[in-house]
Amino acid sequence: MGNGELRVPTAIAVTSADMALPPQDERTLPAAVLQDVGRRPLDEVLTEVQALLDQHGHLIVVCSQAVPVAVERRLYTVRSLLESDRIALFRPPLPPLGIAVLARQLRQLASCDLSPGVLASAGRLLTHYIHAGALLGSVARLDRVPVGLKAHAKSWVPGSQFGVLAHPEPQLVRIGPGAALTGPEFGTWLLVAKGQLQSDWVAGTLAPSWRTLGLREVPLPAESAAWWGTGRLIEFCAFLPDLSVLYQLVTSVRQSPCHWCGIDLIGDRCVFCSAVPPADDRLPDLHRRDGRPAERHASRDRARPASRAGFG
Prior knowledge:
27% helix; 14 strands; 8 helices
């Protein structure tokens, strides 16, 4: 894993301090925290983001889908006013703890010899390897995962608890003898964040069944209660911790230039300018060296993207 020529690493930003997890290793770069962007004066936020661009060249903002609408609108506005294709706004379908884990993985990779476009598009790839869920005291207000009528009815029974996996495939089980969630088929660490729920099911049952390599606890993100529909929860996330593994996953995918802005990327959509290749260019004929499918790259002679300011 080389570092290439001396360069300033791409900045990885989160929208609150509790989404900036402690470093995973000695190479994990600090997160840029865009705190209270929905409430602070616009000029102040613009100055802060411009300073990050001046210092780092490119900025990747990893944002939860549970952020207040004002935060989302402000991020759109800042990107539009700065007229910059050097800002990637990435909002993957992960619970808040999963968002924090993904942001830390990108902070790990930012120390490597990856171009900004490859690093930004690596977020989509790494999302597939994250298993994120929670133990809930109620699913009555859960709308992120399909919940059947029986589960809704049982959620009103005192003492009921539910194991829920939101990603990569939705699962929901009522906690009892034999209750289990399908976990990763590769070695992971488990991160646990406790809310207002007392239980040893995650550490005592889930972690052994998933054969996790280790377990660590962190504070519960402030956005978690809104995302899961209850504060009576224990959120968990299984992830790949080793930088060497993350780097190998990303570099095993073929890189290609974005047909609109020209930046190198992996996958079929540029996270910076939002360009996607035309349908006739999106053919599933590329594979990574480990045999997993990768997406067809775009040619450079096509039309501009329909939207250049959207979230990734």
